[in-house]
Structures are given as structure tokens and as C-alpha cells.
Write a structure and sequence with these properties.
Layout (H helix, E strand, L loop, with lengths): L1 H18 L2 E5 L9 E7 L10 H10 L3 E8 L8 H18 L7 E6 L1 H12 L6 E5 L16 E6 L7 H17 L3 H4 L2 E4 L14 H6 L7 H20 L3 H25 L2 E2 L2 E2 H11 L7 E7 L4 H5 L4 E5 L2 E11 L16 E7 L1 H7 L12 H15 L2 H10 L2 E4 L3 E2 L3 H6 L3 E4 L3 E5 L1 E5 L11 E6 L2 H9 L8
Helix pairs in contact: 2-8, 5-9, 8-9, 13-16
């Protein structure tokens, strides 16, 4: 009896949720001719559907065909959810037909932010009803490949989005870039585009909910300009999918090239810590040794990806080959836990634990080399990391950071007494109102000829250049009281 009553209550709740849904149809402009298409728009979390009317009107005006725009309204608690979304789409399609939309014409479904995540899930399971999906400030979550998605999908975001980070969109773009290498048409079927100067909230209008207001970044463009950029790519995507268009493909090509230019610096610096080799630790080791003749040193930086227990028992090594010292370093890169593929917090490494050798150890192996002063600290290496990130950033990112970014402050190294304590103590990262404060963890063991292989150690918990770069691009731009 109890389960029966629960079923009735749930059924009534579901009925109430579904019956409360409304849609608003924006008919095509009377001056537009040509084929009909429809775009349904699902809102972001805690944003009313009506907030997307200014964008919908701009898209309708920009497209060179008859576009019907339907705003999906009144989701329970203003959050798009799977239970209601399917019914909202059905109601929107029926409303279109009632208003005179030609049955069988292409229908596209767009969603913003969390609404985009829900739209991506819906499109995957109900693709027969749709000609394509548009993800505004959203993306296909991990485990869902662009090439496997059943209908064409546009991923569209701004480079000043404080919630859907550019560093996450970069991963999706790299996936597309690999797809394009074997299939050029992927650029048009699953485009991934980043718009310069646009933030998260500029897909909608009006006052943003607290979560967006707290995390989003100040934009460089007005809402009107943002709507125009969004509309241009939206219309080109829809036009090309509905009927292949050379002009639309030209716009998407331009967007692809712009996105590559925006993301390439980030991808280049991220690559310093990938594929099992820590190139940054290699550079740091050379900096510590300070051999004046750079041909007298080679470093191979091995990254123990997630092998924390194995890492504990590894020691860096030094040998002499052809009058040069050859050093092998080991590093452990720690990434943030992100099981749900959410991008509010940084995606770059929390730290690089680098096991390196001291200059003293190198001098024992190669006594005839010419060395520098030998007083390098972990803090010095972190300063290099910031410089590496800044110099590799785009001109626009550097200018933004210099003018209004919260800076990075390096505190003195925290020295520990054992390698066990060093491995157990994490790099200090503190995001304050004035900027990011960083303090490295350092363990240094003097060289002992009797225990040569286990002495002359120089261990640092380092700031990843990619973390510094993500700070420059994203977190430094966020206003924080």
C-alpha cells in the first residue's frame, strides 16, 4: 500500500512538472524567404528561459533563411532536467506545427551551460527527432566522443568563460583537431569554436544567478556584440548541416582557425607534462646544475603517472657519457579530482613533485665542468614557471593579465627534513583577494660519497607552468573580494 501511494505521489509530481512547461515561439521575420528551420533553446541553471529572447532575436535576424526560435520555459526550479526536457521538446515541436511550421523541416536543439549538458544527453538518446545539437558554454562530457555523437553538434564558448573554462574546451578542440586530420568534414559536422572576449553569462540576458555571478569573468565585449558572434556561428552551423553551404563552411573554417590560434599556446605549455615525460622537470634540473657549457648535460625526465607508491622508492641518477653528465629525474604530477567533468575549478596540475639532483652531486660526477653559483631554490624554479607561462600566453591574455589580473606571489620554500615528509606535503596554493600565493616544499640532502646513489638530492614541489598559465587566462581575471 505504501509503495502504491509513493507511486501516486511521484506520478502527480511528474504530471505537475510536465504540465507546468511552456514554450515561446518567435516566428521568422516576414522579410525572410527560403527554407524553414527551427532552433529550440534550453536555459542554463537558475536562468529563466525568457532571458534568451535577445539572443534568439539576434540569431533569427542574422540567419539568411526562415528561422523559427522556440524558448523552452518554466522548468522545475529553473533547472533543465531529463524528465521535463523530452516533454518540452515535444511541446515545442507541436507548437511550431500549430503556428504553421512546415512538418519535416530541420529542427535543432540548443542548450546553455547545464542546459547544454542536458541537451547533449537528450540528443544522444533522441537523435531521430533532431537535425543537430548546439552546446552553448557546454561540451560533451568525458566518454562521449565527437565522432560518435549521432547527430551534428556545435560546441561554442567564450574565452572569458569563468565556468566552462577555456582549458576544458581545449581538450574538446584537440579531439576535433585529431578527427580533422583523418576527416576534414569533421570541422563542419562537430565544430568546436571559441569566441574572443565573450563570457559565460552573455548567452543569456538580465541578472545572472549567484553561481554565475561569482565565478564568471568580466567580458571584453558588450552583450550585443556577443549575441552577434554567437548568431553568426549558429546560423552557419545550421545552414551547413541543413543544406551544405560554401559560405557557411567559410565562416566555420574561420572559426576553426581562430580557435586554434587562441588555444595553441595553452596546448603547447600543457604538453610540458604529458606522455610519461616531464619536460619541465628536465628544464628545472638543468637550471639547478648551472653548467655553463650546455652540451655537457642531458636530462631525461620520467613522469610516474599516478604511481605514488613506486615514486617513493625512486632516486634520480647521474652518469657520465662522452664527457657529459646524463641525469635521470623522476616526477609525479598531481591533477585535481574531477569525476563529474565539471569546470568551476582549475583543471591544470596541482603540483609537480620533482626528484632532482643537486649541483654538488653533478660536480662529483663531472668535476671538470664549469658551474654557476649553485644557490638555486625551488622558489627560483617557480619564478621560471610563471615566466614560461606568461611568455607563452597570447598577446591578448598577457595584456589582460597585466592590466587587470590578480598576480602570483611566491613565498619562501618550506623546508622539510625527510623525503617521506616531502612526498606527503603538497605545494601551497592560496587564492586570495590580491592574487595567488605559492610556496614550494623542498627537501635537500647533502652529497655523501659513501652513499652516492642516495645523496645529493634536490626535491621540489613545483608550480606547473600550465597551472600558472591557467591562472593568467582564467582565475586571475575573476573579481574576488
Amino acid at each position: 500500500m505504501k509503495s502504491f501511494l509513493v507511486g501516486i505521489v511521484l506520478g502527480l509530481f511528474a504530471f505537475k512538472c510536465i504540465s507546468s512547461l511552456y514554450v515561446k515561439v518567435l516566428k521568422p521575420q516576414s522579410t525572410k524567404t527560403g527554407p524553414e528551420r527551427a532552433l529550440l533553446v534550453a536555459p542554463g541553471a537558475y536562468i529563466k528561459g525568457e532571458a534568451y529572447e535577445p539572443l534568439g532575436l539576434q540569431i533569427r535576424e542574422t540567419c539568411d533563411f526562415q528561422l523559427w526560435v522556440v524558448l523552452l520555459l518554466d522548468f522545475f526550479d529553473n533547472i533543465v532536467n531529463p524528465l521535463q526536457l523530452g516533454e518540452a521538446v515535444n511541446k515545442a515541436i507541436q507548437s511550431l506545427k500549430d503556428e504553421g511550421f512546415t512538418d519535416g523541416s530541420p529542427v535543432f536543439l540548443a542548450g546553455h551551460s547545464l542546459g547544454g549538458t542536458m541537451v547533449a544527453m537528450h540528443g544522444k538518446n533522441h537523435y531521430k527527432d533532431l537535425s543537430g545539437v548546439l552546446l552553448y558554454a557546454a561540451y560533451l562530457t568525458k566518454g562521449n566522443k565527437l565522432s560518435d555523437y549521432p547527430v551534428p553538434v556545435l560546441t561554442l564558448s567564450g574565452d572569458l568563460d569563468g565556468l566552462t573554462r577555456i582549458t576544458r574546451i581545449m581538450d574538446t578542440f584537440q579531439e576535433l583537431y585529431e578527427d580533422v586530420s583523418s576527416n576534414m568534414k569533421a570541422k563542419y559536422r562537430t565544430p568546436v569554436l571559441v569566441m574572443e572576449g565573450v563570457n559565460h553569462g552573455q548567452f543569456a540576458s538580465g541578472k545572472m544567478p549567484s553561481n554565475v555571478a561569482e565565478h564568471d569573468l568580466p567580458p571584453d565585449v558588450t552583450n550585443v556584440t556577443a549575441y552577434q558572434k554567437i548568431a553568426r556561428y549558429t546560423c552557419s552551423f545550421i545552414s551547413n548541416i541543413a543544406s551544405s553551404s560554401a559560405l557557411s563552411q567559410q565562416v566555420l573554417d574561420e572559426g576553426f582557425n581562430t580557435t586554434f590560434r587562441l588555444l595553441e599556446p595553452l596546448a603547447r605549455v600543457k604538453a610540458l607534462e604529458t606522455n610519461g615525460f616531464s619536460h619541465w622537470t628536465e628544464l628545472a634540473q638543468k637550471y639547478i646544475i648551472e653548467l655553463q657549457n650546455k652540451t655537457q648535460i642531458s636530462v631525461r625526465g620520467i613522469e610516474e603517472n599516478g604511481q605514488m607508491i613506486k615514486f617513493e622508492f625512486l632516486f634520480p641518477k647521474a652518469e657520465v657519457h662522452n664527457s657529459a653528465v646524463a641525469i635521470t629525474t623522476y616526477s609525479l604530477v598531481t591533477y585535481p579530482l574531477d569525476p563529474f567533468d565539471v569546470t568551476l575549478n582549475p583543471l591544470s596540475p596541482i603540483q609537480i613533485q620533482a626528484k632532482m639532483l643537486s649541483q654538488e652531486r653533478a660536480k662529483h660526477v663531472l668535476p671538470n665542468g664549469r658551474y654557476g653559483a649553485g644557490n638555486i631554490t625551488c622558489k627560483d624554479i617557480n619564478q621560471l614557471s610563471i615566466l614560461e607561462a606568461f611568455q607563452n600566453s597570447s598577446d591578448v591574455a598577457r595584456e589582460r593579465f597585466s592590466k587587470r589580473g590578480r598576480q602570483i606571489y611566491l613565498d619562501e620554500d618550506q623546508i622539510v627534513e625527510s623525503s617521506v615528509q616531502w612526498q606527503a606535503t603538497q605545494l601551497r596554493l592560496s587564492d586570495g583577494s590580491d592574487g595567488l600565493h605559492v610556496s614550494s616544499i623542498k627537501y635537500k640532502l647533502p652529497f655523501d660519497p659513501i652513499q652516492e646513489s642516495k645523496s645529493g638530492l634536490f626535491y621540489c614541489a613545483l608550480l606547473s607552468p600550465f597551472r600558472a598559465m591557467e591562472w593568467i587566462y582564467v582565475d586571475s581575471m575573476r573579481l574576488k573580494s
